[in-house]
Amino acid sequence: MGEKSFKRSQEGQVEIHPLEAGKIWSRWLENIRDWCLSRQLWWDHRIPAYKSPSWEVVYWADKTRCHFKLVQREKVC
């Protein structure tokens, strides 16, 4: 997933806001390693992942900057 994200960001298919964060994003993806998500979570800590009406998964912490309405499911499991 990291390789695909890095490639798409280099091709301009990913918008990064603020623009100055693009270099940080690229550096982070160049050195990415696998990690266990469950070990990084605190009790009831939410991941900023949402679904669009077309069921496309969107990762965005700020819902106000999106171009469509996002829906967060109440129960994940």
Description:
This is valine--tRNA ligase. It comes from Nosema bombycis (strain CQ1 / CVCC 102059) (Microsporidian parasite). Its EC number is 6.1.1.9. It is a single chain. The protein has 77 residues and is α+β, with helices and mostly antiparallel strands. It has two domains: 34 residues, no CATH class; 37 residues, no CATH class. It has a two-stranded antiparallel ribbon with strand order 1-2. Helix 1 packs antiparallel against helix 2. The mean pLDDT is 69.
Please name the defining characteristics of this protein.
77 residues, ligase, alpha+beta, 2 strands, 2 domains
Using the alpha-carbon principal axes, give the shape: extended
Rg from alpha-carbon coordinates:
14 Å
- Element string (H = helix, E = strand): HHHEE
> In what range is the share of β-strand residues?
5-15%
**Quick one: biggest sheet?**
2 strands, antiparallel
Q: Report, as a whole number of angstroms, the end-to-end distance.
A: 23 Å
**Class from helix and strand fractions:** alpha+beta
Summarize the structure.
This protein is of the alpha+beta class and 77 residues long.
Please describe the topology of this protein.
Layout: H1 2-10, H2 22-30, H3 37-40, E1 49-51, E2 57-59
Antiparallel strand pairs: 1-2
Helix pairs in contact: 1-2
Domain Aminoacyl-tRNA synthetase class Ia: 9-65
EC number: 6.1.1.9
Family: Belongs to the class-I aminoacyl-tRNA synthetase family.
